Amino acid sequence: MKKIAFAMIVVSVVLTACSNKGDGQLVGVKDRPKMLETEPFGMVFVPEGYYMMGAGEQDVPYAYTNQSKPVTIRPFWMDETEITNNEYRQFVNWVRDSLAHVLLGEADISEEGDKGGHYLKYEKGESIGEVIEPKLINWNEKIPWDSDNEEVQAALSPLYTKISTRFYHYRGPRTNTSMFNYEYWDFDYRNYRDPKNPEIFGAATKEFDKEGYEYGGLYANRPSSLGQGAERFIRHEVVNIYPDTLCWAHDFAYSFNEDMLENYFNNVKFDNYPVVGVNWVQAKAFIHWRTFLRNAWLASKGHPQEMRFRLPNEAEWEYAARGGMSLNPYPHGGPYATNAKGCFLLNFKPQRGNYRADGHTYPAIVAHYHPNDYGLFDMAGNVSEWCEDAYDKSSVNFTHDLNPQYRYYAQKDDHSSKKRKVIRGGSWKDISYYCNVSTKAFEYQDTCASFIGFRCVQSYMGHDREDAYKTESHVY
Q1: What is the DSSP letter of 243?
Q2: Number of helices (H) and strands (E), helices first, in the chain?
Q3: Domain of 441: which CATH number?
Q4: Using alpha carbons only, how large is the chain's radius of gyration in Å?
Q5: Is position 241 within any domain?
Q6: Could you tell me the end-to-end alpha-carbon distance of the chain, in angstroms, rounded to an integer?
Q7: Which of 197, 310, 382, 469 holds its CA 20 to 30 A away from the CA of 456?
Q8: Percent of the chain beyond pLDDT 70?
Q9: How confident is the model at residue 63 (pLDDT cuts 50, 70, 90)?
């Protein structure tokens, strides 16, 4: 009997083990990684919802360019303020330090100035029958910015402007060397570029490739990743990311603003003011760098999933600016730019050009005014904000009613009208109309201005903030 009981126990264990493997049933993959959802630092949650996008029937004179349309928006995270000078400086310094490491590595100089010292590691490799020694840069090495070694300073010299040492004993940064080189996935078939023929680009040409696919065509003709190679969806960009501080002089005719030109981005006093002088292309580079920065940390902690930052599309921006209220012209609610006591609720140009009337002649420090009901600051006034969308007066007529977005990546040889991108929110130099949540304006993607900044968003893969990512897949 003991042998029979033992045999039954063994059979039971075997059957249990087999059932854990699915018993030949369709039970899905067992070893799936757990999802990690952390609240992005400095961002607030915007729930999914439905609203009437546009000026509404009450604004008849402006309904031509701000037509109304009911749309549904998915939930997302959004920066509670515009990107500040200090936050953007982290990006600039990261690129600068990367270039410095490369320059010192190519010069083969250590911190002490010795050849073949601390900066480089060597590994032997074979290439076409010959032995080579590729140089691997030690990114953890401290950059000797203040070293007295002449070879070190000669190696770092491309990062500085070439001026006399008697020029106030100051070395200014050479802004034209701040190049950020990056690649990213772009799965929008309308932006598809044939690797063998780069001149053929998306919906702008309506031409056919050798396999008979129409670029920019309907579903049957769009390029697919199935059997065609994913490399066709990789985009490569090289962008000078230093903000155009000269915009303070260029934006105003016969006006003295050189104090802002020299201080706004560099002076510590303006660290928490919104960054300006950044065009749409530079803003895109920033969000891809921020994505890389976050995902590199996640990978170092063993988290397999990726987070992706991006610019908001204009439908998301308007939905977030409304703060859950319908038909409100301003993010704070009410029809006026002032409260019952006559205090201004945003930074703009009131009273026939009395810039100082709202308390600020130029941009104000971020989060100075009260947030809207979603917790977002400065969605009206202060600085206008870049959106992902290309500008078209009639885009409301052909975009979808689910997360509408009109994208077009203009090339250098495209007409200027194709390089227009949507800006929203109005700024410190605009009248109140441009600060309305529904007002749609534009600027050219390669243009920097002293009144345009941006903020980032991150998609939220769920419906409800409380339960998303808290449920795990069950495998029987």
Answers
A1: -
A2: 8, 18
A3: 3.90.1580.10
A4: 27
A5: no
A6: 33
A7: 469
A8: 72
A9: low
- Closest to 95 measured CA to CA, from 174, 19, 16, 31: 174
**Which tokens go with 364?**
């104000």
Round to whole Å and give the CA distance between 330 and 337. 8
- Give the helix ranges, DSSP H, for 123-246: 150-156
Q: What is the pTM of this model?
A: 0.82
What pLDDT digit, counting tens, does each position of 310-358 carry? 999 999 999 999 999 887 899 998 889 999 898 999 999 998 889 999 9
Full domain range(s) for residue 125: 87-159
Domain boundary at 121, 138, 159, which? Answer: 159
User: Are 414 and 355 members of one domain?
Assistant: yes
CB 366 within 8 A of CB 290: no
Longest dimension (CA), the chain: 106
For residue range 295-318, list pLDDT tens digits in order: 888 888 887 777 899 999 999 999
Q: Residue 332 has which token pair?
A: 């704070």
**HSE, side-chain direction, 13 A CA sphere, residue 70:** 1
Using an 8 Å Cβ cutoff, are 152 and 109 in contact? yes
Q: Per the structure, how many domains does the chain have?
A: 2
